[in-house]
Amino acid sequence: MLNYLPGVPRYWLTGLWLLWAVLLFGGFIFGRESETHRIPVRARLASSVTLALAGWSWFLVSPDNAAKSYALLTAIGMTFGFLGDLALSGLLPFGRNVMGGIAAFGSGHIFYVVAILRYGNQTGLDNPATRWGSLAIWLVIAAIAWYFIVFRGQAASKLHWAALPYALLLAATTGLATGLAWQSSLFTGLAAGAALFLFSDLVLAGELFSGLKFKSIGDVVWLTYGPGQMLIVYSVSAAIRFLL
To answer: How many domains does the chain have?
Structure first.
């Protein structure tokens, strides 16, 4: 997949991918069983740091064309993702900060959205019907999911309402990524990653707002969220290959 890169960058980015996989999936396989998860919190955070490092590495090795700005915006987005993970980890002195996590993840997705839109505009992958049609479909899906998972039957608070624009923002990333993938199959991984991120957040929202509980729910969230972020970060490869 990375054969077009010189030796050292190729080995480095492959190594970071392997490290990420070991931290996340190894944590699940070898982690200690608990009611909500097996993957240790520190392994989760380490996997997130690894993806942030991979994002900045992609930026450094990307050629000086549309892929460069795509890589930069993606790296910034993943960095905000790590900050969101940190806010929700419960390891900080002030404990778990749900609103801080939402703010960080939302900021990250703004950068993802800008990355996709800008790259599409620069490379001609900007068919209006495809772009805005897929966006509209995913926004409707997210709004319906928010209503049933977060809002219905609940005494709505500011946090419940804050979850709506957040869900729509995640859906915007998914919709625009899907529009890109419809125009070039190279971006199928990007679309799948954005969809996995949205799905993981819907499960997390069910846990936070609707009392959704089942064994290893935390692992379900991370085993969809982690691969989702990885596919988004490593979609820089598709951005580079499309221009070769």
So the answer is: 1
Backbone region of residue 163 per phi and psi (left: phi > 0; alpha: psi in -120 to 50; beta: other values): alpha
Positive or negative, the CA dihedral 158, 201, 118, 18 is: positive
- The CA–CA distances, whole Å, from 117 to 8, 87, 110, 113 equal 31, 28, 11, 6
Determine the 3-state secondary structure of 54 from DSSP: helix
Residue with tokens 């959704």: 212
Q: Would residue 223 count as lying in a domain?
A: yes
Burial class of residue 185 (count of CB atoms within 10 Å of its CB; 0-12, 13-18, 19+)? exposed
Q: Residue 29's domain spans which residues?
A: 7-242
What are phi and psi for residue 202, nearest 5 degrees? -65, -40
Is 70's pLDDT higher than 80? yes
Tell me, yes or no, whether 124 lies in a domain: yes
Using pLDDT thresholds of 50, 70 and 90, give the confidence band for residue 90: confident
Cβ–Cβ under 8 Å, residues 150 and 202: no
2 located within any domain: no
Angle between helix 217-233 and 188-209 (nearest 10): 150
Q: What DSSP letter does each residue of 114-153 carry, written as one string?
A: HHHHHHHHHHT---HHHHHHHHHHHHHHHHHHHIIIIITT
User: What is the tens place of the pLDDT at every residue in 158-201?
Assistant: 777 778 888 999 999 999 999 999 999 999 999 999 999 999 99
The encoded tokens of residue 198 equal 């949205």
Burial class, 239, CB count within 10 angstroms (exposed 0-12 / middle 13-18 / buried 19+)? buried
